[in-house]
Design goal:
By secondary structure, the chain is mainly α. Helix content is 77%, strand content 0%. It is rod-shaped. The two termini are 20 Å apart.
Length: 88
């Protein structure tokens, strides 16, 4: 995985797998919350909690592309730094 010299292209597969699992988990939790909300009375405490949960899943899901961009940028910078400064 990570060496003392930074991240490499080999780390991209692991990061992509982790992001994929996160996206699937968010989708499954949102699906469960939608199913729970369908069985509840409108404006009850349970309905409001599931509404907040769905809102949270939407917010978390909206950050996935930003996280992916930051991680990909870190890997690219790591590859560049490794190639310029640790070129032995």
């Amino acid at each position: 995985m990570m060496t003392k010299k930074g991240m490499g292209l080999g780390d991209l597969q692991t990061v992509a797998l982790i992001l994929g699992v996160a996206v699937i988990a968010i989708g499954i939790v949102a699906n469960i919350l939608t199913g729970l909300q369908a069985d509840q009375t409108a404006n009850s405490a349970a309905y409001n909690v599931t509404t907040d949960g769905l809102s949270s899943m939407t917010t978390m899901g909206s950050y996935i592309p930003t996280i992916a961009l930051v991680v990909a940028s870190a890997i690219i910078i790591g590859v560049l730094v490794k190639s310029f400064f640790f070129n032995k």
